[in-house]
Amino acid sequence: MKWWAHVLCSALLAAALAPGEGAAAPVLVAVGAVLPDVLERILGLRHRSLHELAVYLLLTGPLALSGTVTVAVGAVDHILTDALTVHGVTVFGFRVRGPLKTESYAHNALAVAIHLLPLALIP
Questions:
Q1: Cα separations (Å) of 83 from 22, 24, 56, 76, 95?
Q2: Which of 27, 59, 89, 115 would you label with 70, given CA atoms 20 to 30 Å apart?
Q3: Within 10 Å of residue 34's Cβ, how many Cβ atoms?
Q4: Cβ atoms of residues 30 and 11 within 8 Å
Q5: pLDDT tens profile 18-44
Q6: Rounded Cα–Cα distance for residues 122 and 23 (Å)
Q7: Each residue's pLDDT tens digit, 100-117
Q8: Helix or strand or coil: residue 95?
């Protein structure tokens, strides 16, 4: 997915799961949404495998416990959204992948639209 799709997807999910995070929430969710790509470039962590998803959970867990749920939601949603792409993610040695192409703007928009569902379900 493109960075803007990750940010929008995570923002929609954070709005559904953690409403009322405050004025900093949009910035925090954007940080979380791009965190896996940034850490991959800086530390060499491949964010498309399960053992490295555990690393992201460990990194974002304390943030979630401290009340900064939006960073954790953004980072974990990034990994889960990547599972919708043809590149997929590796889970216990198996590739979990979907039909969406990373470079397609229409597919990126579809991923964002899918993230509207949790928000629509909230009364």
A1: 29, 28, 15, 11, 9
A2: 89
A3: 18
A4: yes
A5: 666 666 677 778 888 888 888 778 877
A6: 21
A7: 999 999 999 999 999 888
A8: strand
User: In the structure, how many helices (H) and strands (E) does the chain have?
Assistant: 6, 2
Give, in order, the Cα–Cα distances in Å from 109 to each of 15, 113, 119.
Answer: 18, 6, 16
Residue with tokens 């009340």: 67
93 vs 89: CA distance, rounded Å = 10
What element of type H or E holds 49? none
Quick check: 122 pLDDT over 90?
Answer: no
Average pLDDT, the chain: 79
Structure tokens belonging to residue 74: 């953004």
* Distance separating alpha carbons of residues 120 and 10, to the nearest angstrom: 15
**Rounded Cα–Cα distance for residues 90 and 50 (Å):** 6
Q: How far apart, in whole angstroms, are the C-alpha atoms of residue 120 and residue 61?
A: 26
- pLDDT confidence tier of residue 64, bands split at 50, 70 and 90: low
Tokens 């990126």 label which residue? 108
Q: How confident is the model at residue 45 (pLDDT cuts 50, 70, 90)?
A: low
